[in-house]
Amino acid sequence: MAVARAIGLLLGAAADAAVGDPRRLHPVAGFGRVAAQVERVLYRDHRAPGAVYTATLAGGAIALGVAVERAARRNPVARVAATALATWVVLGGRSLAAEGAMIGRHLDAGAVEDARARMPNLCGRDPHSLDAAAMARATVESVAENTSDAVVAPLFWGAVAGVPGLLGYRAVNTMDAMVGHRSPRYRRFGWASARLDDAANLVPARLAAALTVAGAPVVGGNRRGAWLAWQRDASAHPSPNAGRVEAAFAGALEVRLGGRTVYPHGVEDRPVLGDGRMPDAGHVTRAVELSRVVGALTAAVAAPLALLFGRRGHRTRRPRALSRRPRPGSRPRTDGGPACPARRPA
Question: For the whole model, what pTM was predicted?
Answer without folding.
Answer: 0.87
